[in-house]
Amino acid sequence: MYEFDYVRPTTLQEAQDLVGEDKKLLAGGQTYMPTLRQRLAMPELLIDLNAIPVLHGICEADDRISIGAMTRHAEVASDGLVRSKIPGLASMAGGIGDPAVRHRGTLGGSLANNDPSACYPAAVLALNAVVHTSKRSIEAKDFFQGLFTTALDEDEIISHVTFPSVPCAYLKFKQPASGFALAGVFACKLDDGFRLAVTGAGQEGVFRWQQAEAALNNDASFGDFKSLALEPDMIEDVHADADYRSNLVRVAAGRVVAQLREQLA
Amino acid sequence: MSKTVPNQSIAGKFGFGQPVRRVEDTRFVTGHGCYSDDVALEGALTGYVLRSPYAAGRIVTLNVDDARDAAGVHLVMTGEELQKDNTNHLKCGTLVKQPDGSTMYEPQFPVLAVDRVYHVGQAVAFIVADSLNDAKNAAEMIEFDVEESDAAPDFCTALDAGQPKVHDAVAGNRAFEWRHGDQSASEAAFAKAAHVVELTLINNRIISNPMEPRIAIAEWDEETQKLTMTANTQGGWPLKSRLAKDFLKLPSEQVRVVTPDVGGGFGTRAFPCPEQPMVCLAARALKRPVKWVAERSENMLTDLGGRAHLSTARLALDENHKITGLDIHLRADLGAFLSDAAPFIPTGAMLKVATGVYDVPALNVLVEGVYTNTTPVDAYRGAGRPEAIYLMERLMDKAANSLGQDRVEFRRKNFIPTEAMPYTAASGTTYDDGNFNLVLDDVLTRADWAGFEARRQASAAKGLKRGIGLCYYIESTLGAPNETCAVTFMGDGKLEFTVGTQSNGQGHETAFAQLMADRLGVDIDQVRMIQGDTDRIPTGGGTGGSRSMITQSTAINGVADQIIEKAKALAAEDFECAVEDMRFEAGELSVAGTDRRTSIMGLAEKHPGALDDTATTKIRDNSYPNGCHVAEVEIDPETGQTQVVNYTIVDDFGVLLNPMLVEGQVHGGVVQGLGQALCEQVVFDEGGQLVNGSFMDYAMPRADTMPHMDFHYTEEVPCTTNDMGAKGCGEAGSIASPAAVINAMIDALKADGIAELDMPATPQAVWRALQKAA
Ligand SMILES: Cc1cc2nc3c(=O)[nH]c(=O)nc-3n(C[C@H](O)[C@H](O)[C@H](O)COP(=O)(O)OP(=O)(O)OC[C@H]3O[C@@H](n4cnc5c(N)ncnc54)[C@H](O)[C@@H]3O)c2cc1C
Questions:
Q1: Is B537 helix (H, G, I), strand (E, B) or coil?
Q2: CA pair distance B664, B361, nearest whole angstrom
Q3: 131-170 in B: which are within 8 Å (CB) of A?
Q4: Which ligand 1 atom is at minimum distance from the Cα of B696?
Q5: Domain range enclosing B251
Q6: Is the ipTM of this structure higher than 0.90?
Q7: CATH number for the domain including B572?
Q8: What is the pLDDT of residues A82-133, one digit of tens each?
Q9: CB contact under 8 A, A238 and B767
Q10: CA dihedral B247, B248, B252, B257 (to 10 degrees)
């Protein structure tokens, strides 16, 4: 890697004062460390968020569950509150990568990165979670803006994310090498109806499958996902062609909705 | 009846046949192993290789001036200098003869590129600096421009007309043509055949991915003018002579190769690689140690590839479904240059078992070597024999299925009968023994082959397609027939013995110590195996081709016999009795009919050096391990996902020294084979770029997707060509498993009209086959 300076602040304010162009944040390092090692990034300063206590942890406030940006996937997966109140989120976190990745990787890092094959974006979008940053609060629908692109400014730090407590389920077919989603569908039912968010498949990243949502809102027992249009262009890569990916999205939707129905019953 | 590996023996039982736990594992799993990267020499500099990002083209500029001046840089080596010194060619040791009698043409395999680049990842310059970061910074200052030309990265099409040429001097990318067999007899068999079955398949290219990447460390001693290379080899002797002769131009005594603990070889670590001469020449020039360690993605890009055949086979059968002829035409990817054994693998090594376990009267083989603009290809676990068996066992299933025959009975009908042993196949191989029906009966019972239909229906009720398949494989072990063992009694109740094999994870320290201890009647912790140093051990055949047990055990037995005879003579003198009256049992020498006795260790202490001895022995022939693997799969037709739900093995490895080590070898081999069958595949794009060159994209088999393996073995058919009766076991698993699982998958899908399926049979490939069939 190229040489850079390194700081490990203990308050969010210190980090906020430092962050900016060429002054980058480090969370779990599961994405950023390999990037640095391959000399694909050349930051001047690396701001390690690991020692900022307010960014860690899970709590319940005003009927919502708040998860700190630096909370590891393994913590979310095993947390009693999350498991009982947002079961799909816990099972999603428990299926990310492998144990090493789950014990280092963080919620904030995953969202800031917005990998088109990452799992968290599907959960956050389907659950209409709110991303709280050092500057403002951003609704999920406004947060994800395409491949590796989010609403975050260069000097903005995610502090925590709040989720509603609702029945929900997630199912992904894994890319066999990395464990990322080849196709993943997160399903839940909010006050305004069913919501299905799809990751791993769309060329523009995570998206809501509106046709499927409409079909379910029209008939809660709907199951013929194979008949529905999937509008976004699908990713084509060494792991799967577009038609296979669309098939996986449809199969995943059918199976995950069946799981959701069990919870709703 | 076959056996199952017993539990770890009761303490104290370390003898022959016991499942003794690996003595090296404590060291390995507690971080006390000493791998090449753990060798930290004082004052060592770091090497870094600048590699070509282009697959093909003419080098327009290679300017290293700025890099030479960069901070921390001691040396920048280029191909031009090596070319001048005549030290820029890695020679191939196995050039083959073509049908017209000519030896194939050998293009230069440069250590560092000159004039042209031939594949992505080819070494262009070697930078030696104080640190890796210094070296990388300097590499970025190198001006390297290439006038790119079209590449031919795909071995399936590289021979087609109009493909870009890899080497100007090689027309149509055809590296060689090689024939074996009796073409006219084969043609006659096909002309008369009642049935002909044909199959074309791809044996996918893989990366062997040992856990430990390639490493080379060189240290030059100015005073003695001696070079010591430390590297993760599968036996340092060939490397020693190559380095001495072709690169350092020194008498071979002035080169020493040390191999510390090795984290995986798989054939890939058996052959010289360009970085080894680089570090040697740099260390001598700088008079300082130089160390180079491949980074993971660099290792994936530049480690020798494995497999990569496009094969067509035709089977001629009479009206009773008895095989009358076999015709094989295969195209083997060699990559851009000829690695040491590359031409031998698809020819001589493949041929050994080309007819499998069947009585094939007429055989005709045509092999074409194919150059591609890719990293060179060479041996990978099984090396040629997995390719042959995969082809034959797929063909046997296709023949049975297409002729409406039972797959098991069809095989039985064509087995080489046990009474015919020793049997010389049309390949020229003489199988010394084998009882294929014995093994087959056993594995079918254990796998409950007969009860499959009920399981199929149960799966179908869940919406899953279930299939069962088998592979009956036979292997020919390979490699040098000689091996040596030298024993030194240390005088403290212990002895050391050397081996010319080289463990790269198999557990030799346990196995050979177990054998030596058993033979001399001492405890296993009284004997210590020494390996991996060409100064201490002057000759050795290394490890590869499943040769280690059969060759090294013969030498150990030989030296133990000699020592026992010497000990008897010595003890007879001490006891003043006749040698004929001396008895040796359980480590003790006694005078028959008396209570006069001494231990062998006691005798050695009393007579320092007197019992030390060396034996060099030779096995009479290769051994022919064989066995049958049965795989059972469930396929989800909606997603194409396959689960291997049952996996049953009966192997015939002759007599086993340590069944637990053997089972471990089989597990590893099966997993590698299932990896190749289900997920592994090297993908180059049209421009010759490696698309899946990291573990984020290259799918390795994983513990959570692998089946439980129900492993059994028979010892009823000992090998006749070595005294222990052992047959090699290291490669068998990777030979048998690809065909077993693919045959099972085709069985699951045949009701849908699917008769063929290529590796890797990924979920997408299965789903697509079902879509097409629908
Ligand atoms: C082998 C492997 C398998 C994986 N499998 C999966 C999978 O199956 N599913 C899945 O969803 N993910 C997967 N991941 C991704 C992983 O789970 C992490 O989510 C991801 O690497 C990013 O999180 P991190 O904490 O490691 O972030 P880092 O790598 O530290 O940072 C990533 C980026 O986010 C920025 N950033 C970090 N924290 C913040 C913050 N609080 N505010 C603003 N910006 C921030 C950083 O500056 C950087 O640009 C996998 C990763 C690996 C290596």
A1: coil
A2: 37
A3: 133, 136
A4: 1
A5: 41-149+215-293
A6: yes
A7: 3.30.365.10
A8: 999 999 999 999 999 999 999 999 999 999 999 999 999 999 999 999 999 9
A9: no
A10: -80
